[in-house]
Write a structure and sequence with these properties.
Blueprint: H1 38-54, H2 56-76, E1 81-89, H3 93-99, H4 116-120, H5 123-133, H6 145-154, H7 163-177, E2 178-183, E3 188-195, H8 198-264, H9 267-319, H10 327-340, H11 344-362, H12 376-384, H13 390-430, E4 431-435, H14 448-474, H15 480-487
Antiparallel strand pairs: 1-3, 1-4, 2-3
Helix pairs in contact: 1-14, 2-14, 5-7, 5-8, 8-13, 9-10, 9-11, 9-12
Length: 498
């Protein structure tokens, strides 16, 4: 027997070339291969989808938890209730025009919406709103649900602030919550507030509306009232000045009367005085007769002018019917020519006027056309018993000036008082409440539904992220493309888990 070691070995099989590395099939696209790997992108999307399907229970838990947290956050967040009122304003320029037509008022001076923001948000007005709306008394209603929950959990009440600090905090909160919009074009003023309690929000808006109307009323009426007080003071002073001027005039007349009595003791001066008085009386009578004659002449000429206008109108009308040689036309032309010439009555009146003027000038008159002649001054002085007395003349002029000033001040005072009464009566027509403050049924902030939906959307995103992160952190090969891309090996078959 031969030993197995002595048996010849078969020749080794020929060596084969190693297979080329496996390249996964890729879908053909028009994009360059080095720009976008569409195959990898599709595989990644499939991996995310399968990760969600593999961890669906975890995803549902996360979505439910986030939705519940959103709902709880919406319940615990501070509430904000919005209340607003809208006012329509009108101008009162027509009132000023009726009271004082000659006065010019700028448009900006009667702008009802002017300084609305400053009036509502002034510190004094905010203090009044705090007092009227009783924000200090009902401060517990302004606390948020989180504050109440914290108090229940910790069994500790919030610290008590000093009255000044609490008022400053409420003023700052009002400055942040109140909104005032004034539209000069439409003349509307909108006052709104966002507050944590619906009843307090309505109280705040009502108080702000009331204070704004009162401030506008005071601003419009106070200026006129102050003018009335100033004019009343001036009228009182002018009245005292008139009394003083009258007393001075009486004293001057008494002194002049004493001087006149001394002068009347001389018979020559007394006779001259009587002659002067008689001459003044005659001049006044002649001047009155001249003016009366002139008025009569003017009436006659006016009557003739009207008659001429009527005849010319008839002539124009008849010329459209008859020829120029017609007797009616000829008769009208003759009447017009006769009316144009002065009548004997008119010529006689003019002659009498010239005779009276010559007599007036002969007796010492100066100007018959002037309403008051210088020759009348001695007559007026004679009637007073103090002809040509300088002290009486000065006192008379002073009193005349005082009376004129007093009359002008009385007129202005009457206009101001009338405007004040009209402004007070018409104020209610200058402001109309378009939208009153209403009790809000539901809060405007926060939007609980929107927060819950946001929680659900965030839960979906977090669930997808958690499912993908869990598969990545486990470092397991779960997809076919991971074998082909990472291990560079072909996949011969796939088995489903049952």
């Amino acid at each position: 027997m031969t030993s197995p070691a002595a048996e010849p070995r078969p020749p080794p099989p020929p060596r084969r070339a190693p297979p080329p590395p496996y390249m996964p099939e890729r879908e053909e696209t028009n994009a360059p291969a080095d720009l976008i790997d569409w195959g990898f992108l599709l595989d990644a999307v499939g991996f995310v989808k399968n990760a969600v399907l593999r961890h669906w229970f975890l995803g549902i838990l996360i979505i439910v938890a986030m939705g519940g947290l959103g709902s709880v956050a919406g319940k615990l967040m501070p509430r904000k209730y919005h209340v607003e009122t809208r006012l329509l304003t009108y101008r009162n320029l027509i009132i000023a025009a009726l009271v004082n037509p000659g006065r010019s008022i700028p448009v900006e001076a009667d702008q009802p919406t002017r300084a609305a923001w400053e009036m509502v948000l002034s510190r004094d007005n905010l203090k009044a709103i705090i007092q009227q709306a009783k924000l200090v008394e009902y401060r517990e209603l302004m606390r948020s649900p989180i504050s109440h929950l914290k108090e229940k959990l910790l069994h500790k009440k919030p610290p008590v602030l000093a009255p000044e600090d609490e008022q400053d905090a409420l003023i700052a909160q009002l400055e942040q919550g109140l909104t005032v919009m004034a539209e000069g074009g439409t003349g509307t003023v909108t006052i709104g507030v966002d507050w944590s309690d619906p009843q307090l929000a309505m109280n705040i808006v009502e108080a702000a509306q009331k204070n704004f109307l009162e401030a506008r009323h005071d601003a419009e009426v106070s200026a006129i009232s102050e003018s009335v007080r100033v004019l009343e003071g001036q009228v009182a002073r002018e009245k005292e000045n008139i009394k003083k001027a009258i007393s001075e005039l009486e004293a001057a007349v008494k002194q002049a009367e004493l001087r006149r009595k001394k002068a009347d003791s001389d018979p020559v001066k007394a006779r001259a005085r009587e002659l002067l008085l008689q001459a003044d009386h005659n001049l006044a009578q002649l001047k009155f007769m001249v003016q009366s004659k002139r008025r009569a002449i003017a009436d006659v000429e006016e009557l003739r002018a009207r008659r001429l206008a009527e005849l010319r109108a008839q002539l124009t009308e008849q010329r459209t019917v008859f020829s120029p040689q017609h007797p009616v036309i000829t008769d009208l032309e003759q009447k017009i020519a006769a009316m144009q010439a002065d009548s004997p009555q008119l010529a006689s009146m003019r002659a009498e006027e010239q005779a009276l003027i010559q007599e007036y000038l002969r007796m010492g008159g100066h100007d018959v056309d002037s309403p008051t002649d210088q020759s009348m001054a001695p007559m007026a002085g004679a009637l007073l018993g103090t002809p040509d007395d300088p002290q009486v003349a000065v006192a008379t002029d002073t009193m005349r000036v005082m009376v004129s000033r007093h009359t002008e001040k009385l007129r202005r005072l009457d206009l101001a008082q009338t405007e004040l009464e009209i402004s007070k009566a018409s104020f209610k027509h200058r402001y109309t409440v378009l939208t009153p403050a209403l009790f809000p049924e539901k809060p405007t902030k926060p939007n609980t539904k929107l927060i819950a939906i946001g929680g659900v959307v965030g839960g979906v995103a977090l669930a997808v992220f958690a499912a993908v992160a869990l598969d990545i952190l486990r470092r397991r090969i779960l997809e076919r493309w991971q074998v082909e891309r990472i291990l560079k090996l072909p996949v011969l078959a796939e088995l489903e888990r049952r």
